[in-house]
C-alpha cells in the first residue's frame, strides 16, 4: 500500500525538477531569514542567485550539530517565534540540548512523512497502533503519534514505562501495529512470553527506529513475533522520525526526497561518492519552514541507490546504516562498530542479542570485553558446553572485527533493559 | 521416574557473595528439600547441581526468582559402604566404553549413592542394571527416616 503515489512513484526527472525548484526557494528563505546562513554564504562569496538547481548544491556550506549548539536556542529559526508552534529538543550526551522548532505546515510535512512510512509497513485506518516511544521533548513519541493519526489508525499513546500494562493493553485493545525502539520491542516480547499471552497478540507489524539495529536482529524479531518489522529512520535536526523507512522488500530505506534531499559524501573529503559507495549522509530540508537545515551532516554512514524498487516506489533508497562516524570505536588501532558485534553474536547462535561492550585500557593496551546473555535453551549443566559456547561466540566476533575479545556469558535477563536507546558500549578508557 | 534416571536441578551461579544464600532461601521458602549438592567452579561463574525433592518445581521457582535454572537426567547409583564399591562401578562403566562427565556423592541416613552424568545415559542405565547395581530413580528413595 502506498500513501502518496504521486510523490512516492514520481519519475526521476520530475523528482529532480521538483527538488531543484524547492532547493532554490529554500536557499532564498534561509539567506534572507537566518543570520547564520547569510553570514556563511557571504564568507564563501555566495548569493542566493548562484544556486539555480541541484547541480549547484556542492557550492553550499555544510551544517553540523555544533552549529545547532552554538545557536542555542533559537538562532537557526527562519520564521518569527510566533509562527513556531512546537519545540523539540534532544538531550545530547555532551553539553547543551539541540533545539528544533516547527511551524504548523512543518508539522503537516512531518505527519505526511511518517504516514508514508506507516502505510509502507502495511498499516492504515483499520489498524490500532501503539506508540511506545517516549512522549515529550524527544521527537519519537509525538512524531510517530501524529503520523499514525494522519493515516487514521486508532492511536494508543502508550509511551515507555510500564511494560506489563503495555502488553495488557496490547491484548485488550487488539493492537495490530507498534512503534518503538528495537531493543524495547525485544523486551516487550520477553514480557509477552512471561505473561503467557503469545496466542492472544494480534500484532502484525512493528516500525522500529531511534537506534541502530542489524538486519539479523530484524529477522529475529520477525521470526519470534510472527510480524513484519520495519526500519524507520529520522533525526530531530531535520524533522524527527519518518525521514526514511523500508518497504516489504526490506532492501534499503526509501527516503522522502521531495522533503529531505540526500547526498552521500566521503567522510574525509566531503565530496560526493557514487551510488552504492559508503559515505556520510547529508540532508537538506526542502519543505521545512521553521528551522530548515542546509546540507546537515548526519554522521550516519550509508550508501544510496536511485534504482526503482520492486514495491513500485521511485524514491531513492539508503542502505541500512553501517554505523555512525562517531559510534565507531578504535580498539588497538582497529575500527570497530558495535553493529559488527551484534551481527557476530546472532551468527554464532546460542546467545540472545542482549549484549554490552566494555572497553578498557590495561597496561596501556586496549581491552574489549563483550557481556552477552545466554539463551535459556543454551544454558547447560556442563561447564564444557558453556565454555564451548563462549569459545564459539568469541571466535565469531574475532572473525568479524579482526580482534581477539573476551566474552563473558551472563545469565538471561541480567543486563539492564532499555525502553529507549540501549546502552551498548561502556568505554572506561580515560584519554588524557 | 522409574526409568533409571533421576532429575537433577542445575543453577547458574554468578560470582557474587550471597548468591548461594539466595538460591537456598528460594528453595527453603518453597518447602523443597536438598538431598545432594555440588558446586562446579570456573573463573567467571559456578554451576550448582542438586538432587532435590521437587526438581521441576525448583526449576520453575528459581527461574521466576531471576535465576537461570534447568533440569537434567542423571543416574543415582546406590553404593554399599564397602571398600572397592567405586572401583567396581567405574570398571563397569569403562568396560562398556562409557565416560563420566561429572559426579558427586550423596548420603542420607537410609542410602549412599553416586550421582553421575555419563556420556551415554541410556546405555549406562542398561549396563549398570545388568551388572546388578541399584539405581535410585524415585525421590522417595532418598528420604530420611
Short overview:
The complex is a heterodimer of chains A (432) and B (145). By secondary structure, chain A is of the alpha/beta class. Chain A has helices at residues 5-8, 12-33, 35-43, 65-70, 104-120, 139-151, 163-172, 182-195, 215-225, 338-348, 383-401, and strands at residues 86-90, 98-102, 128-131, 154-156, 177-180, 205-209, 228-234, 241-246, 253-255, 260-265, 279-285, 296-302, 304-305, 317-318, 323-324, 329-331, 334-336, 351-362, 365-374, 406-410, 425-427.
Tag the structure with descriptive keywords:
heterodimer, A: 432 residues, alpha/beta, Rossmann fold, GMP Synthetase, Chain A, domain 3, 2 domains, 9-stranded mixed sheet, 11 helices, 31% helix, 24% strand, B: 145 residues, alpha+beta, VC0802-like, globular
Describe it for me?
- The complex is a heterodimer of chains A (432) and B (145).
- In chain A, 31% of the residues lie in helices and 24% in strands.
- By secondary structure, chain A is of the alpha/beta class.
- Chain A folds into two domains: 325 residues, 3-Layer(aba) Sandwich (Rossmann fold), CATH 3.40.50; 99 residues, GMP Synthetase, Chain A, domain 3 (2-Layer Sandwich).
- In chain A, the strands form five sheets. Chain A has a nine-stranded mixed beta sheet, sandwiched between helices. Chain A has a four-stranded antiparallel beta sheet with strand order 10-11-12-15.
- The mean pLDDT of chain A is 92.
- Chain B is of the alpha+beta class.
- Chain B folds into two domains: 67 residues, VC0802-like; 69 residues, VC0802-like.
- In chain B, 29% of the residues lie in helices and 35% in strands.
- The longest helix of chain B is centred in the N-terminal third of the chain and has 11 residues.
- Chain B is globular.
- Classes of the chains: A alpha/beta (432), B alpha+beta (145).
- The tally of domains of chain B stands at 2
- Radius of gyration of chain A, in Å, reads 22 Å
CATH hierarchy, class of the largest domain in chain B: Alpha Beta
Along the chain, the helix and strand elements of chain B come as EHEEHEHEEH
CATH architecture term of the largest domain in chain A: 3-Layer(aba) Sandwich
CATH level-two architecture of the largest domain in chain B: 2-Layer Sandwich
**Topology, number of strands of chain B:** 6
Helicity level of chain A: 25-40%
Beta-strand content estimate of chain B: 35-45%
Tally of distinct domains of chain A: 2
Secondary-structure content class of chain A: alpha/beta
CATH topology of the largest domain in chain B: VC0802-like
Protein chain pair with the most extensive contact, residues per chain: A-B, 17 and 18 residues
* Helix coverage percent of chain B: 25-40%
CATH class of the largest domain in chain A: Alpha Beta
What is the CATH homology-level superfamily of the largest domain in chain B?
VC0802-like
**Overall pLDDT level of chain A:** 92
Number of helical elements of chain B: 4
Shape of chain B: globular
